Every structure is written in C-alpha cells, then in structure tokens.
Amino acid sequence: MKTHGKRYISVAEKIEPGKKFSFEEGTKKIKEVGPAKFDETLEIAVRLGVNPAHADQMVRGTVVLPSGTGKTVRVLVVAQGEKLAEATAAGADFVGSEDMIEKMNKGWLDFDVIVATPDMMGALGKLGKVLGPRGLMPNPKSGTVTFDVASAIKQIREGKINFRVDKGGVVHAILGKVSFEHVDIMANTKSLLEALVKLKPSSAKGRYIKGIALSTTMGPAVRLDEVEISNMLRVS
Q: How distant, in Å, are the alpha carbons of 60, 62, 234 from that of 194?
C-alpha cells in the first residue's frame, strides 16, 4: 500500500475530497498545493470518451504551449548535406547523420527530441526498438520528420509538446512549471484542451471530455469541472 509523506498529506488537506474546481479556481489551486523545495513540473491528465483499441478513435497530436514548458529541451537533428549547417544555425544541441545513428546504437541517448529529415528515416528506423519505447522516434505527424529543420527546432524551443491517448483513454501532458503565473497556466491548459477538442473523433459517442486533473511532481491532484470546461470549449 502506497504511503505519502507529511508534506503531501498537509497540502492534500487543502483540497476538499471529491471536489471539482472551476477552470479558474483549479488553475489557481494547483499553485497552492504545488510549492516544494524545487520548481515542480505541472502536468495534466484528461480522460476522454474514446476507445483507443479502435484506430479511428486514436487521439494524438501536437500543440505549442503559448507560455512554453519551462524546460530546457535538448534537440538532436539527424540530417545530411546543407541541412546539417541549417540545424546548427537554428540552435540544435546535437547535429549529425550516420555518426549520430551509430552513437545511439551504442547506447547514447542524452537528448530529449530528435528532428530528422525524411531521407534519414530509413537508417534511423533501424533503431525503432531503442527509440520507440522511449517516445523518441521522429514522426511526420508530430512535425519531427521534415526538411524544414529550422522551423521544427523553433517550435520545439517555443514549447511544442506531443500528446497521445493511452490504452485507458487518458492523455497525459506537461503544462509547464508551478512557478508560472496563473494566467500562463490558464493559457497553456486551455491550448492543450482546445487541441484535444479539435481532434475529437467523429466516431466517439457520448461525452468527449470525461475527466480532467492537474497535478505536480510531488503533489496531489486537483480535479477540474469537466462539464463547465466542456461548455467553455463548446464540445459535448
């Protein structure tokens, strides 16, 4: 049975059991229960009314959080020719082609995102068993397989995140840091939710947004009123 420390219990007491907060109240409350000895990461979990077992109900996409993620993202670009210089000029942390693929094959994974040009995907695909389980394999749908490496790097630096519904119908994503101003937390949360609404499968029946919870690295969850938020987003 999982036990919680004194700090967790003390901040959890600030949340009335079973209560669901309005959008504005909840995004304020999470700052109250979050402060620790470090700047905790703010996360969101959204339970959707979809069945991911059906291909036409798989929800996945990207969104650029308007206030950024608050994280330093290490970007690796795998390309060749003139695209190597373009990637370096755009601020990529690591740049290379076959040499980088060989380095990863030997176990080097000290980066957070890979941007690859389409002509390198054949060679990079051989690392599927290494990169896939870690969510590092570039994908055209996430904008990380492209010849426009400069734009891809710029979006990542500005706060672009990927999200995907899991087997339980829940989307997990980061929203930034607890130290963010309340207006920034609201903006990031709304942008993520709007992105999910745009991706609502036409085959999904019943209420689409069935539950929303905000949490921090070491704090308890703050549940938001999904009915109020669904009305705000104009989604059934």
A: 13, 11, 10
Please enumerate in sequence order all residues whose Cβ is within 8 A of that of 82, keeping only pairs 6 or more positions apart, or say none: none
CB 161 within 8 A of CB 167: no
For residue 174, report the phi and psi dihedrals to the nearest 5 degrees: -90, 150
Q: Dump pLDDT digits (tens) for 137-167.
A: 999 988 999 999 999 999 999 999 989 999 9
Cα–Cα dist 10/26, whole Å: 18
Query: Could you give the CA distance from residue 95 to residue 182 in angstroms, rounded to a whole number?
Result: 37
As given in the structure block, the two tokens for residue 77 are 């670009």
pTM of the model: 0.84
Tokens standing for 133?
């389980």
| Residue whose structure tokens are 């979006």 | 155
